[in-house]
Amino acid sequence: MTDTHENGGRKSPFLRAQEAADYLGLTRSTLEHYRWIGGGPSYRKHGGLVFYHIDDLIEWSERRKFKDSATRVRP
Description:
globular; Multidrug-efflux Transporter Regulator, Chain: A, Domain 2; DNA-bd_dom_put_sf; three-stranded antiparallel β-sheet
């Protein structure tokens, strides 16, 4: 995978909701549900559109890391 666009510019660290859901292996509706009830990754709104920063997705995922079914891994 590349870190640049075809025009040579760096890719944005912000993902739209569907891209973020794909990145996390979730459906878009699950990600929206987390946004409504809380507990999901941090997000931003720009011009009424929801964006997720890649670092926030990684951080959120890391907080849900388990060694086994009974032991949560502390960051």
